[in-house]
Amino acid sequence: MSVGGMIGADPDQLSNLGATLSRQRDSVEAIVTTVTQSLSGTMWVGPARQSFENEWTTSFRTVLSKLSEAFDLAGRDCVVRADELRRVMGLR
Question: Which segments in the chain show pLDDT lower than 70?
Answer without folding.
Answer: 1-6, 92
